[in-house]
Amino acid sequence: MKAKTLFDKIWDGHVVRSIEDGPDVLYIDRHYIHEVTSPQAFNGLKERGITVFRPDKTIATADHNIPTKDQHLQILDELSRNQVERLSENCSKYGIELFGLNHSKNGIVHVIGPELGYTLPGMTIVCGDSHTSTHGAFGTIAFGIGTSEVEMVLASQCILQPKPKRMRITVNGNLHKGVTSKDIIMYIISEISTAGATGFFVEYTGSAIKRLSMEARMTICNMSIEMGARGGLIAPDEITFDYLRQIPSIPGIDDLESSVSQWKKFKSDPDATFDRELEFDAGLIKPMITYGTNPGMGMAIDGSIPMAEGKNNEASSSFLKSLDYMGLKPGMKLLGHPIDYVFIGSCTNGRIEDFRAFAQIIRGRKKASNINALIVPGSKKVEEQMYAEGLIEIFKNAGFEVRQPGCSSCLAMNEDKIPAGKYAVSTSNRNFEGRQGPGARTLLASPFTAAAAAITGRISDPREFITEENNVKI
Amino acid sequence: MPKVKFDILESTCIPLPFENVDTDQIIPARFLSATSREGFGDNLFRDWRYKKSGEKNSEFILNNPKFSGRVLVAGKNFGCGSSREHAVWAIFDYGFRAVVSSFFADIFMGNALNNGLLPIVVSEELLIKLHDLVHRNPATEVKIDLGKQTFTIISTGDSVRFGINPYKKECLLKGLDDIDFLLSMKNVITGYETNNRFVQ
Fold first, then answer.
1. Do A242 and A310 sit in the same domain of this protein?
2. Which of A117, A158, A413, B196 has the fewest Cβ atoms within 10 angstroms?
3. What is the per-residue pLDDT for A470?
4. B50 vs A: CB within 8 A
5. To the nearest whole angstrom, how far is the Cα of A352 from the nearest Cα of chain B?
6. In A264-390, where does DSSP find H-type helix?
7. Is A176 part of a structural domain of the chain?
8. Which ipTM was obtained for this model?
9. Which residues lie closer than 8 Å to A4 by C-beta, 6 or more apart?
10. Same domain for A260 and A350?
11. Average pLDDT, chain A
């Protein structure tokens, strides 16, 4: 039999039918929905007079537009409130499980899915959100879809998809202290650009990837979309199985160990071939930060912004327009540059490990007086853990405000907006113009780098605050 | 999802020669709170079209009365970022029926095809030439023939064949819809669930 990649094994195992000269009809094992990209899909079902085909395979949460303060009160913004209410109505009408606002298991869709055991190796997973790639950390084919495709899944549990090409990214070697999974993926994107993996599905492997925790692997897979990839996955291993073993009850699985023995087979054959192979040395990676308005515009924290020379006209004008928006200049260093906001949270870095790492640097220190900080847990469970582990105390003592769970300032659909012209060091995934609010200037970075910025009030090298003792691996 | 037909389009173009235009620029997140598909065109490229004060930014191309048309000529890697289909709805609602670029982000491309907005990939050379032509003469017209898969700059006669998945081409030419197709396959899907489940 022909050697296959893990991606091919999972994809081919989910093809209900191949259309000649067309896309595959792909069966979906798990469908996550949220309030913003689902209402029009439900409207479509109503217009056709059809129902949800497999309601037990769809899981819902409210996360994108919800406030992160006073969640027990009515949502003030009328349109947002309407979206959240419509989600509740649609879920109750069609029998879909909803972890809505104020539910004890509420949170960001890509945080709660894995946390509650709904994301399992070998699955196909979709959601009307591009960061669905997060779930690839468990050895799944997970990718973001548009609302028309949400409607397809609701109607038939299938979507029509052309099969992407395969790419393997191998990261070998040891990470230096203060360098995290966020820095690995930001480094890769800065090397290959925001379109470097468009048309591909990526498998990440190599010694540096295999040592990462599940949370760190989720951070890597989460940002696959930022280099244009359809998704990214990591073959499941003992770290994956141990993560799943600590979940009190996994929906639909009675005998976890028997499933684990099946999941152990989920890996690429040794002689499987990829359409493109890239290799990186973990030892070359430093803490990263972005300086522009797309995630490919990143550099080592102690580096200098590149010059515009050597780019063609279109690229050069886009580059200068981007720096102009950021209020920065080619050739500038960023270390020491004053900032105004720090945001820690999102589906990229809103899991418990991220807050533990943030706390390593914050503990016993004070927030700089010029900084406004938004600390937003990714889920209710993460929030509970932050209380249980005393992290909330550490943050409060340092002068930070801890918010309630949600997507918050990552896309600023709610009131958590960064004001125009202000600089925010953010652990989220996108630094697009206006992403965190009209005119907001986003600098993407790891939780360590965000912590260093929060206590110094300026862009700072987190390695100065990392010792052998507090260098937690994230 | 809507059923939209596309066969032949002749139109002037609006040029937007920036690389990596992401879906947050096309439609900022704060305008995603609607629960219908209509009306997003009002906020297309909102933060480029309007100044902070709320008045129109006369320097932005959509506010320049010299340029009009149903074809958006974009830059490389158009539509990257968020999967929001609202970006396609906004472009379509504004009046565009086709977007031309040398490279599109995957999800945007799929969303466009699902809504009858035709994404046309041309070479970087042709894209640069087209930007230049349209800038110099906003009356420059192009002809898109989906059946023949040709994209033609009428004044110069430059004509190229563009690629499109044959299944999607058929859907657009006939105004067919993926959901009708999937619903017609219910028995096959149920059969898959019974016999071929990859994940139990």
1. no
2. B196
3. 85
4. no
5. 25
6. 313-326, 346-349, 352-362, 380-388
7. no
8. 0.94
9. A12, A268, A269, A272
10. no
11. 96
Residue A318 CA to residue A295 CA, distance in Å, equals: 14
Q: Do A160 and B33 touch (CB under 8 A)?
A: no
Q: What is the pLDDT along chain B (200 residues), one digit of tens a residue?
A: 778 899 999 999 999 999 999 999 999 999 999 999 999 999 999 999 999 899 999 999 999 999 999 999 999 999 999 999 999 999 999 999 999 999 999 999 999 999 999 999 999 999 999 999 999 999 999 999 999 999 999 999 999 999 999 999 999 999 999 999 999 999 999 999 998 777 64
Q: Whole domain around residue A317: which residue ranges? A: 290-465
Number of domains in chain A: 2
pLDDT at position B199 is 62
Residues A78, A28 share a domain: yes
Check whether A316 has a pLDDT greater than 70. yes
Q: Is the pLDDT of residue A474 over 90?
A: no
Instruction: Say whether both A394 and A432 belong to one domain.
Output: yes
- CA nearest A318: which of B18, B102, B105, B128? B18
Nearest to B17 by CA among A196, A317, A431: A317
pLDDT at A20 (0 to 100) = 86
Residues of A whose CB is below 8 A from B60? none
Structural tokens at position B125: 């050379």
Backbone φ and ψ for A360, nearest 5 degrees, come out as -55, -40
- Min CA distance, A19 vs chain B (Å)? 8
The reply to whether A228 and A375 lie within a common domain is no
Residues A265 and A378 in one domain: no
Backbone angles phi, psi at A318, to 5 degrees: -65, -40
Q: What is the pLDDT of residues A317-340, one digit of tens each?
A: 889 999 999 999 999 999 999 999
The answer to whether position A196 is within a domain reads no
What share of residues in chain B are helix, strand, coil (percent, to 5)? 35, 20, 45
What domains lie within chain B, and their CATH numbers? 8-195 (3.20.19.10)
Task: Give the nearest chain B residue to A440 (CA atoms).
Answer: B47
Cβ of residue B52 closer than 8 Å to a chain A Cβ: yes
Residue type, B21: V
Task: Give domain status of residue A206, yes or no.
Answer: no
d(C-alpha B65, C-alpha B63), whole Å: 6
Domain match, A391 and A434 both: yes
**What percent of chain A lies above the pLDDT cut of 90?**
95
Of B166, B179, B196, the CB nearest to A21: B166
A445 and A388, same structural domain? yes
**How high is the pLDDT of residue A283?**
98
If contacts are CB pairs under 8 Å, which of residues 16-35 in chain B contact chain A? 17-20, 22, 24-25, 28-30, 32-35
Interatomic CA distance for residues B112 and B97, integer angstroms: 10
For residue A51, give the CATH number of its domain.
Answer: 3.30.499.10
Q: What is the pTM of this model?
A: 0.96
Are the Cβ atoms of A195 and B168 closer than 8 angstroms?
A: no
Mutation target to probe the A interface, by most A beta carbons within 10 A, among B16, B18, B19 is B19
Q: Report if residue A57 sits inside a domain.
A: yes
Model pLDDT for residues A70-86, shown as the tens digit of each residue: 999 999 999 999 999 99
Name the residue among B104, B48, B109 with its Cα closest to residue B75.
Answer: B104
Look at residues A471, A197, A468, A451 and name the one whose alpha carbon lies nearest to residue A301. Answer: A451
CB A136 within 8 A of CB A234: yes
| CA nearest neighbour of A186 among A235, A215, A222, A213 | A222
